[in-house]
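Quick one, T. Sequence first:
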Amino acid sequence: MKTIVLVGNPNCGKTTLFNQLTGTTAYVGNWPGVTVEKKEGLWKGNRILDLPGIYSLSPYSPEEKLTRKYILDEGPDLIVDLIDATNLERSLYLTTQLTELGHPVLLVLNMGDLLEKEGITIDTKILSMMTGCPAVQIAASRGIGLSDFAKEVEKILVSGKLPALPLFSNTVERYINKIVEDDYLHTIPKGRPPRWAAIKLLEEDELFLSTMPPIPQETEKTLESARIALKEHYNDDLEAIIIDQRYKVAEKISKDCQTKIEQKKKFTFDTIATSKWGAIPLFIAIMSAVFYLSIGLVGGITTGWLESAFGWLSQSLQAFLQSIGVIPLLSGLLTDGIIAGVGSVLTFVPQLFVLFLLLSILEDCGYMARIAFIMDRIMRAIGLSGKSIIPLVIGTGCSVPAIMCSRTIEHQKQRELTVIVTPFIPCGAKMPIFALMIAYFFQGKWYIAPLVYFLGILAVVATGLLSQALDRHKEKNAFILELPRYQIPTPKNVWLQTKERIRGFILKAGTVILLSSAIIYLLQSYSFTLQAVSSEQSMLAMIGKIIAPIFRPLGFGFWQASVALLTGIAAKESIVSTLSVTIGTGGLTTFFTSASALSFMVFILISSPCIAALSAMAKELGSKRKFFFAILWQTGFAYFIALLTYGVGLLIL
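Structure tokens:
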């Protein structure tokens, strides 16, 4: 079995091609850092890997280190260099590095269907001749050109033809060749081609030097004389000189094989979407529309119908079980416990499906990357990295991958702050709680959902500003983000992404929620002496009543709410099922008021996340002290904001 790796810049369509070839459910997004881990699949009997999107093989980011290490250590049979055909010159910079690694390379010009619109034509024969690599043009999102791609892959795997090496200026080449001839290059580890190794020695690449045997004194003299001569000749440092040489090679190849007709500048959606004054209002309008369509419109239509359906199912099952003489405990466990608990959560599947669908469309069409761009200045102003917006956006689906995604942020303080504030963004698990409260206390007021969402953003901003005020050693860094072109979302990608999110939600309802509903029912049916009692004398009530006074100032100081918050530690959806089992969703208005319902939502929004997200936080923070501080801050801040909300709610509502 041969090994093929897909390598390319972020947003070049690499993961889309991977999905087309393997048929797997790999996630497809439009921002750098989405594929943090390599993804693997099978295609025509070959092993194919989707490596992280990178701009170069310089070891600056985790993605670049992972890709470089894999190619050098594992030695793939073919490197598929996926190139955005509309950004040829920029993409060829990475090509000049890949061709030096001693493995066959296939150049794949993706987005070929957009070339005509951009006024660009590329001669693949000239491109192939100048790079020494076969070249093929495709449109991965449409499945165009994949048969030609398959033929070229088969040819290269049989021939094993290596690409031509990029040639720099005569001066630089002279010193590279001098180092290649040094005896020390014969001692380098296997898989490190001599020319590539010589360039890394010139650049004093720390990652490369850490894998090399000690450099002899004579070789060090050769290297130092070469560095001094090149620095004097080009009046620059070695790394910058090599970068400039690579760009000149990329520029020459691009100029010779590409013709471009200048297009007149037109008014586009980005004129508003990335403008100084229009971007934020547009973002607010779009997110408000998303919540209106999902929770306001779809939720308003389906919630009542599904509640009635599960109510009918519960009554029918209870009548059947009584008719066949099933004991009341088992009957109650199935109907008032499991069906009531799981059913109350599944009631929100339609609106969550629409929410995930709309978010997937925004990601696939390229708008989410614009959010990262427009929020960059705000992020840096509150002590976060521009890259922090990526975990915050992913957090609308689930906090666990969002927290793990923060590892792409280089600076430690910014990374840790991002880990702490990411759970403030309402994830899919919190949405059923908000939808439940809105359905019973804020009917017709669809704007409550986006207000809760924006309150989460305000919590992020407030925490960041406080951190900035207390931090005397502020970290500053540039945020480089490529804005992918807008595209019509591909139904396959949108469906896969939406399906995975909603599938995870339903699976949790069928496992964690089912188990917790059963346990909650049993705990509220028995006392500590295991005697059958009313819910007010049950074990659950006794536990809840110990905690309840803490939440009395927030408006929900009754044991049912306290127990629901406790079960929410396992999974936030359990809060809905617990309330359904203990008081019934129809009984919410007996215990909650509009003000306390709003306070309850705010506390859940900002307080510590579920156990899975807490585990991810502990892993990423890497310190018990920092982890416990994060929990203390999230819970304390949530309590304070919920207290304010309840006070204001009493005055207004």
